[in-house]
Design a protein that fits this description.
Structural class: alpha+beta
Radius of gyration: 39 Å
Helix content: 25-40%
Pfam family, one: Neil1-DNA_bind
Shape: elongated
Strand content: 15-25%
CATH class of the largest domain: Mainly Alpha
GO molecular function, one term: DNA binding
Subcellular location: Chromosome; Cytoplasm, Cytoskeleton, Microtubule organizing center, Centrosome; Nucleus
CATH architecture of the largest domain: Orthogonal Bundle
Protein name: Endonuclease 8-like 1
Organism: Mastacembelus armatus (zig-zag eel)
């Protein structure tokens, strides 16, 4: 699932590809998408993008003509419009020629040039969404990457919130306080600090200061650590890594977000914990997989298993279920025999005595012990014989009666 770094790289991609490009006409939506229409059409406009945590905002700005006397045509936009995107599980932007549109492109912006090119929002699983004429979601906190001071203050000033009662691995996914952190980032951050994922969040954050002693340090630019940070032992805290680890992903650039080549080998090399061989994995209380090393911590869910083990057991249950279905649909001959035997036992009265000689009865007992039970076909034949014999008796009586009548008539 795209997280804060991927959404920021997506905004950089849009700005780079759409720089100097003039768009025109209406914004079009695919027929299968259930997201709202974008009521915007213009003869000429530009597109720019910004990101904040797990959101990307496209701004459509009409290009005003130099002729002040020229009036805007009816139905044409004359003011900028913002569209806020949430990428869901698989959303991203592409800028391609019109004849190379992705089959899962769901929102389309057409350029004015010929041949036409299209900026499209591609979402294979259709979990993503967009909202026109709105700003950032108010229930999301400051961005972990580009609003670090506000992010740090927002967390430390709300530690009394019940949200911090839970384990740190689950609290890190709360976008009200950690806007931009997702599944792989939480695993990498906790792994680097050697923090078990299922330790209460409040106990880890209570001792942190509102001022970051590492604020003047930027490892990506090679700046020296402040003197105050050296006195503290030179180790950044949890909130600091929530800021710096995502920036490391941003610095990977095209190795993380490249819709054209889809080559993520650089990103996979960067990962130290998430989905890495030798690491443990377990599902949290909401069913999301957390990767870690060592002991999970005291707040681990009861009866939790590795997702892989759970998947195997589920597959085995599915196979058993299909086998039962097959048996129910087409019973074997042995099953039929068992059913017939049970029916004969239940139908026989308790005080029933076999009228046949003991020898025959003993033979019958031996055959039953040996499992020789009459099949449905034999029962059908015996039933047919009974019907035949029963139907033959009245016929014989009728013939005798008719014979007497003919004799009397002859006399």
């Amino acid at each position: 699932m795209p997280e804060g770094p991927e959404l920021h790289l997506a905004s950089l991609y849009v700005n780079r590809m759409c720089d100097g490009v003039v768009f025109a006409g209406p914004v079009r939506k695919s027929e299968v998408s259930k997201n709202p229409d974008v009521p915007f059409t213009c003869e000429a406009y530009r597109i720019t993008a910004t990101s904040r945590g797990k959101e990307v905002k496209l701004t459509l700005t009409p290009i005003k003509s130099d002729d002040s006397k020229q009036t805007v045509k009816a139905g044409q936009a004359d003011q900028p419009v913002d569209i806020v995107f949430h990428f869901g599980m698989s959303g991203y932007f592409r800028f391609t020629p019109e004849d190379e549109l992705h089959k899962h492109a769901h929102l389309l912006f057409y350029s004015k040039e010929k041949p036409c090119r299209v900026l499209s929002f591609v979402d294979t699983r259709r979990f993503g969404s967009w909202h026109p004429n709105v700003s950032w979601q108010p229930n999301r906190g400051p961005c972990i990457m580009f609003e670090y001071k506000s992010f740090r203050e927002n967390v430390l000033s709300h530690l009394s919130d019940r949200a911090f009662d839970g384990p740190i691995c689950e609290v890190l996914l709360n976008q009200k306080y950690f806007n931009g952190i997702g599944n792989y980032l939480r695993a990498e951050i906790l792994f680097r600090l050697n923090i078990p994922p299922f330790v209460q969040a409040r106990t880890l954050l209570e001792g942190l200061e509102s001022e970051d002693v590492f604020e003047n340090e930027r490892s990506t630019t090679g700046m020296k650590t402040s003197d105050k940070a050296k006195k503290k032992g030179g180790k950044p805290d949890l909130l600091r890594l929530c800021h710096t680890v995502p920036l490391e992903v941003v610095n990977l650039g095209g190795k993380v977000y490249d819709p054209e080549t889809a080559d993520y080998s650089g990103f996979e090399t960067w990962l130290q914990c998430y989905s890495v061989d030798g690491m443990k994995s377990i599902q949290d209380h909401k069913g999301r997989t957390i990767w870690f090393k060592g002991h999970p911590g005291p707040m681990v869910p009861k009866g939790s298993r590795s997702p892989k083990a759970k998947k195997r057991s589920k597959k085995e249950e599915d196979n058993d279920y299909t086998d039962k279905k097959k048996v129910a649909q087409s019973c074997s001959e042995t099953t039929i025999k068992k059913r017939i035997k049970q029916e004969t036992v239940t139908k026989t009265p308790k005080n029933y005595k076999d009228p046949r000689p003991k020898e025959i009865g003993s033979k019958r007992g031996k055959t039953e012990k040996a499992g020789e039970v009459s099949t449905p076909q034999k029962e059908k034949k015996s039933t047919a014989r009974r019907r035949k014999s029963s139907s033959a008796e009245p016929l014989e009586g009728s013939q005798r009666k008719s014979g007497r009548v003919t004799r009397q008539n002859s006399k």
